Protein backbone atom coordinates (compact mmCIF):
# COMPACT_ATOMS: atom_id res chain seq x y z
CA UNK A 1 0.00 0.00 0.00
CA UNK A 2 1.23 3.50 -0.82
CA UNK A 3 2.44 5.80 1.91
CA UNK A 4 0.33 8.91 2.50
CA UNK A 5 2.76 11.09 0.54
CA UNK A 6 2.86 8.66 -2.37
CA UNK A 7 -0.93 8.37 -2.28
CA UNK A 8 -1.37 12.15 -2.45
CA UNK A 9 1.10 12.41 -5.31
CA UNK A 10 -0.62 9.59 -7.20
CA UNK A 11 -4.10 11.13 -6.93
CA UNK A 12 -2.84 14.62 -7.70
CA UNK A 13 -1.08 13.42 -10.84
CA UNK A 14 -4.17 11.61 -12.12
CA UNK A 15 -6.45 14.57 -11.45
CA UNK A 16 -4.02 17.09 -12.95
CA UNK A 17 -3.84 15.03 -16.14
CA UNK A 18 -7.60 15.29 -16.76
CA UNK A 19 -8.59 17.53 -19.69
CA UNK A 20 -9.32 21.08 -18.57
CA UNK A 21 -7.77 20.80 -15.10
CA UNK A 22 -5.33 23.63 -14.33
CA UNK A 23 -4.61 22.96 -10.65
CA UNK A 24 -5.18 20.41 -7.87
CA UNK A 25 -5.25 21.00 -4.13
CA UNK A 26 -5.58 19.01 -0.92
CA UNK A 27 -8.07 20.48 1.54
CA UNK A 28 -9.96 19.65 4.69
CA UNK A 29 -8.38 18.25 7.83
CA UNK A 30 -5.59 16.52 5.90
CA UNK A 31 -4.31 19.89 4.67
CA UNK A 32 -4.67 21.59 8.05
CA UNK A 33 -3.15 18.83 10.16
CA UNK A 34 -6.31 18.27 12.23
CA UNK A 35 -7.14 14.86 10.77
CA UNK A 36 -7.53 11.56 12.54
CA UNK A 37 -6.61 8.10 11.27
CA UNK A 38 -10.08 7.62 9.77
CA UNK A 39 -10.41 11.06 8.17
CA UNK A 40 -11.18 11.10 4.48
CA UNK A 41 -9.10 12.84 1.84
CA UNK A 42 -10.43 16.02 0.23
CA UNK A 43 -9.05 16.93 -3.17
CA UNK A 44 -10.21 19.78 -5.39
CA UNK A 45 -9.62 20.00 -9.12
CA UNK A 46 -9.64 23.50 -10.53
CA UNK A 47 -10.67 24.25 -14.09
CA UNK A 48 -11.62 27.37 -16.00
CA UNK A 49 -15.14 27.53 -17.43
CA UNK A 50 -15.36 23.95 -18.70
CA UNK A 51 -14.75 20.47 -17.29
CA UNK A 52 -16.22 17.15 -18.38
CA UNK A 53 -16.80 14.71 -15.51
CA UNK A 54 -16.58 11.86 -18.01
CA UNK A 55 -12.81 12.17 -17.79
CA UNK A 56 -12.88 11.49 -14.07
CA UNK A 57 -15.22 8.54 -14.53
CA UNK A 58 -12.88 7.09 -17.12
CA UNK A 59 -10.08 6.85 -14.55
CA UNK A 60 -12.03 3.91 -13.12
CA UNK A 61 -11.90 4.66 -9.42
CA UNK A 62 -14.95 3.10 -7.71
CA UNK A 63 -17.56 5.47 -6.34
CA UNK A 64 -20.03 8.13 -7.42
CA UNK A 65 -19.06 10.89 -9.87
CA UNK A 66 -21.48 13.77 -10.42
CA UNK A 67 -21.75 16.05 -13.41
CA UNK A 68 -20.98 19.76 -13.24
CA UNK A 69 -23.84 21.57 -11.51
CA UNK A 70 -25.30 18.48 -9.86
CA UNK A 71 -24.74 19.87 -6.37
CA UNK A 72 -25.94 23.36 -7.30
CA UNK A 73 -24.53 26.82 -6.59
CA UNK A 74 -20.86 27.60 -6.08
CA UNK A 75 -20.35 24.11 -4.63
CA UNK A 76 -21.15 22.73 -8.04
CA UNK A 77 -20.26 19.06 -8.03
CA UNK A 78 -17.73 16.40 -7.26
CA UNK A 79 -17.17 12.75 -6.52
CA UNK A 80 -17.12 10.30 -3.62
CA UNK A 81 -14.51 7.67 -4.37
CA UNK A 82 -12.49 4.85 -2.87
CA UNK A 83 -8.84 4.92 -3.93
CA UNK A 84 -6.33 2.44 -2.55
CA UNK A 85 -8.84 1.63 0.18
CA UNK A 86 -9.06 5.27 1.24
CA UNK A 87 -12.23 7.40 1.22
CA UNK A 88 -11.68 10.32 -1.13
CA UNK A 89 -13.82 13.36 -1.95
CA UNK A 90 -13.09 15.26 -5.16
CA UNK A 91 -14.62 18.70 -5.58
CA UNK A 92 -15.00 20.61 -8.85
CA UNK A 93 -13.98 24.26 -8.72
CA UNK A 94 -14.36 26.76 -11.55
CA UNK A 95 -11.65 29.43 -11.27
CA UNK A 96 -13.75 31.97 -13.14
CA UNK A 97 -16.53 31.58 -10.58
CA UNK A 98 -14.08 31.72 -7.68
CA UNK A 99 -12.44 34.89 -8.97
CA UNK A 100 -15.88 36.49 -9.17
CA UNK A 101 -16.72 35.37 -5.61
CA UNK A 102 -13.42 36.79 -4.38
CA UNK A 103 -14.16 40.14 -6.02
CA UNK A 104 -17.62 40.13 -4.46
CA UNK A 105 -16.24 39.22 -1.03
CA UNK A 106 -13.71 42.03 -1.21
CA UNK A 107 -16.67 44.39 -1.62
CA UNK A 108 -18.48 42.80 1.31
CA UNK A 109 -21.06 41.02 -0.81
CA UNK A 110 -22.07 37.39 -0.48
CA UNK A 111 -25.12 35.16 -0.64
CA UNK A 112 -26.29 32.16 1.32
CA UNK A 113 -26.89 28.80 -0.32
CA UNK A 114 -28.35 25.54 1.02
CA UNK A 115 -26.00 22.57 0.84
CA UNK A 116 -26.32 18.98 2.00
CA UNK A 117 -24.67 18.23 5.36
CA UNK A 118 -24.62 21.93 6.34
CA UNK A 119 -27.27 23.04 8.85
CA UNK A 120 -26.72 26.74 8.21
CA UNK A 121 -26.03 26.35 4.50
CA UNK A 122 -22.89 27.97 3.11
CA UNK A 123 -21.80 31.48 2.23
CA UNK A 124 -20.73 31.97 -1.38
CA UNK A 125 -17.28 33.02 -0.12
CA UNK A 126 -16.66 29.46 1.12
CA UNK A 127 -14.96 28.51 -2.15
CA UNK A 128 -12.57 31.44 -1.65
CA UNK A 129 -11.82 30.26 1.86
CA UNK A 130 -10.92 26.84 0.52
CA UNK A 131 -8.06 28.43 -1.41
CA UNK A 132 -6.78 30.07 1.76
CA UNK A 133 -6.59 26.88 3.82
CA UNK A 134 -5.77 24.25 1.20
CA UNK A 135 -2.42 22.90 0.07
CA UNK A 136 -1.69 23.34 -3.63
CA UNK A 137 -0.40 20.11 -5.13
CA UNK A 138 -0.28 20.83 -8.85
CA UNK A 139 -0.46 24.10 -10.75
CA UNK A 140 -0.79 27.54 -9.16
CA UNK A 141 -3.65 29.01 -7.12
CA UNK A 142 -4.12 32.28 -5.22
CA UNK A 143 -4.11 32.29 -1.42
CA UNK A 144 -6.49 35.11 -0.46
CA UNK A 145 -6.73 36.80 2.92
CA UNK A 146 -10.11 37.27 4.59
CA UNK A 147 -11.49 40.54 3.20
CA UNK A 148 -11.79 43.42 5.66
CA UNK A 149 -15.17 44.37 4.20
CA UNK A 150 -16.53 40.91 4.92
CA UNK A 151 -15.49 41.14 8.55
CA UNK A 152 -17.82 44.11 8.86
CA UNK A 153 -20.71 43.02 6.65
CA UNK A 154 -21.10 39.29 7.27
CA UNK A 155 -21.49 39.10 11.09
CA UNK A 156 -24.72 41.12 11.38
CA UNK A 157 -26.24 39.24 8.44
CA UNK A 158 -25.54 35.88 10.04
CA UNK A 159 -26.72 37.08 13.46
CA UNK A 160 -29.97 38.42 12.04
CA UNK A 161 -30.71 35.04 10.46
CA UNK A 162 -30.09 33.34 13.80
CA UNK A 163 -32.30 35.81 15.64
CA UNK A 164 -35.17 35.45 13.18
CA UNK A 165 -35.08 31.66 13.50
CA UNK A 166 -35.18 31.79 17.29
CA UNK A 167 -37.98 34.35 17.34
CA UNK A 168 -40.04 32.11 15.10
CA UNK A 169 -39.33 29.08 17.28
CA UNK A 170 -40.37 31.03 20.38
CA UNK A 171 -43.64 32.14 18.82
CA UNK A 172 -44.60 29.04 16.83
CA UNK A 173 -42.83 25.92 18.10
CA UNK A 174 -42.64 26.44 21.86
CA UNK A 175 -46.36 27.04 22.47
CA UNK A 176 -47.17 23.83 20.58
CA UNK A 177 -44.59 21.68 22.36
CA UNK A 178 -42.67 21.03 19.13
CA UNK A 179 -39.39 19.55 20.38
CA UNK A 180 -37.89 18.46 17.05
CA UNK A 181 -38.63 21.77 15.34
CA UNK A 182 -37.22 23.69 18.28
CA UNK A 183 -34.05 21.59 18.32
CA UNK A 184 -33.58 22.23 14.62
CA UNK A 185 -34.03 25.97 15.05
CA UNK A 186 -31.56 26.05 17.93
CA UNK A 187 -28.92 24.05 16.05
CA UNK A 188 -29.27 26.18 12.94
CA UNK A 189 -29.08 29.42 14.91
CA UNK A 190 -25.95 28.18 16.68
CA UNK A 191 -24.23 27.46 13.37
CA UNK A 192 -25.26 30.83 11.95
CA UNK A 193 -23.93 32.62 15.02
CA UNK A 194 -20.69 30.68 14.75
CA UNK A 195 -20.34 31.91 11.17
CA UNK A 196 -20.83 35.45 12.46
CA UNK A 197 -18.17 35.07 15.15
CA UNK A 198 -15.56 33.62 12.83
CA UNK A 199 -16.28 36.18 10.11
CA UNK A 200 -15.72 38.95 12.65
CA UNK A 201 -12.36 37.37 13.50
CA UNK A 202 -11.44 37.11 9.84
CA UNK A 203 -11.31 33.31 9.93
CA UNK A 204 -12.39 31.21 6.97
CA UNK A 205 -15.05 28.51 7.40
CA UNK A 206 -15.11 25.61 4.93
CA UNK A 207 -17.46 23.23 6.76
CA UNK A 208 -19.43 22.87 10.01
CA UNK A 209 -17.55 19.95 11.55
CA UNK A 210 -15.67 22.03 14.15
CA UNK A 211 -17.61 25.25 13.79
CA UNK A 212 -19.15 25.34 17.26
CA UNK A 213 -15.82 24.51 18.93
CA UNK A 214 -14.02 27.25 17.04
CA UNK A 215 -16.71 29.77 17.97
CA UNK A 216 -16.87 28.72 21.63
CA UNK A 217 -20.50 27.65 21.37
CA UNK A 218 -20.36 24.07 22.57
CA UNK A 219 -22.54 25.20 25.48
CA UNK A 220 -25.48 24.89 23.11
CA UNK A 221 -25.31 21.11 23.64
CA UNK A 222 -26.64 21.63 27.15
CA UNK A 223 -29.57 23.66 25.86
CA UNK A 224 -30.52 20.98 23.35
CA UNK A 225 -30.45 18.20 25.94
CA UNK A 226 -32.85 20.11 28.22
CA UNK A 227 -35.68 20.21 25.66
CA UNK A 228 -38.98 18.53 26.44
CA UNK A 229 -42.55 18.74 25.10
CA UNK A 230 -43.43 21.15 27.92
CA UNK A 231 -44.08 24.50 26.24
CA UNK A 232 -42.66 26.41 29.19
CA UNK A 233 -39.43 24.43 29.07
CA UNK A 234 -39.10 25.06 25.33
CA UNK A 235 -39.65 28.77 25.80
CA UNK A 236 -37.10 28.91 28.62
CA UNK A 237 -34.45 27.08 26.61
CA UNK A 238 -34.99 29.25 23.54
CA UNK A 239 -34.55 32.32 25.74
CA UNK A 240 -31.41 30.81 27.27
CA UNK A 241 -30.05 30.06 23.81
CA UNK A 242 -30.74 33.61 22.65
CA UNK A 243 -28.75 34.95 25.59
CA UNK A 244 -25.80 32.66 24.82
CA UNK A 245 -25.79 33.46 21.12
CA UNK A 246 -26.33 37.20 21.47
CA UNK A 247 -23.44 37.58 23.92
CA UNK A 248 -21.05 35.11 22.27
CA UNK A 249 -18.12 36.73 20.57
CA UNK A 250 -19.07 40.19 21.83
UniProtKB/TrEMBL annotation:
Keyword Acetylation part of the UniProt annotation: no
Domain of life, per lineage: Bacteria
InterPro entries attached to this UniProt entry: NT_sf (IPR043519), Polymerase_NTP_transf_dom (IPR002934)
Gene Ontology MF annotations: nucleotidyltransferase activity
Domain Polymerase nucleotidyl transferase: 12-68
SUPFAM superfamilies, alphabetized: Nucleotidyltransferase
Family annotation (Pfam families): NTP_transf_2
Keyword Transferase tagged: yes
Annotated keywords: Transferase
Protein name: Nucleotidyltransferase domain-containing protein
